[in-house]
C-alpha cells in the first residue's frame, strides 16, 4: 500500500519557505493541508503541479460561488 503524503501548517501570517508539517501523517492542529495520495495511489510530481495550478486559479477567482467553499475577496 502506498503512503499518503501531507504538507500542512497552522500559522499562515508568517512568511516561510518551509511547511510546518511535511510527512505521512496529519495532525489535529493542522488548519490547512495538502494531501497527496489515497493510500493506494500516490500522484506523480506532474499531477501534483497540475493540481496546484488548478487551486491557484480557484484562489484567484475567489472560490466557487454556490458550492459552500467560497473564499473572501482579497482585502490585501
Give a quick summary of the entry.
It contains one helix and three strands; from the N terminus they run E-E-E-H. The protein is an alpha+beta fold.
In terms of topology, how is this protein built?
Layout: E1 5-9, E2 21-23, E3 32-36, H1 45-60
Antiparallel strand pairs: 1-2, 1-3
Q: Please, could you describe this protein's structure?
A:
Helices cover 21% and strands 17% of the residues. The chain has one helix spanning 45-60; strands spanning 5-9, 21-23, 32-36. Strands 2-1-3 form a three-stranded antiparallel sheet, with no helix packed on it. The protein is globular, with a radius of gyration of 14 Å. The termini are far apart. The mean pLDDT is 78.
Count of helices?
1
- List the secondary-structure elements in sequence, H or E: EEEH
Span of the ends, CA to CA: 43 Å
Mean pLDDT over the residues: 78
Poorly predicted runs are none
Structural class: alpha+beta
Q: What topology, given as strand order, has the largest sheet? A: 2-1-3
β-strand percent reads 15-25%
Question: Percentage of helical residues?
Answer: 10-25%
What profile does the largest beta sheet have? 3 strands, antiparallel
Keywords:
single chain, 1 helix, three-stranded antiparallel sheet, alpha+beta, 3 strands
Amino acid at each position: 500500500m502506498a503512503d499518503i503524503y501531507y504538507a500542512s501548517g497552522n500559522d499562515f501570517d508568517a512568511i516561510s519557505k518551509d511547511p510546518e508539517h511535511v510527512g505521512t501523517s496529519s495532525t489535529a492542529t493542522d488548519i490547512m493541508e495538502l494531501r497527496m495520495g489515497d493510500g493506494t495511489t500516490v500522484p506523480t510530481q506532474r499531477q501534483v503541479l497540475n493540481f496546484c495550478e488548478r487551486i491557484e486559479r480557484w484562489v484567484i477567482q475567489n472560490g466557487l460561488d454556490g458550492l459552500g467553499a467560497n473564499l473572501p475577496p482579497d482585502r490585501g
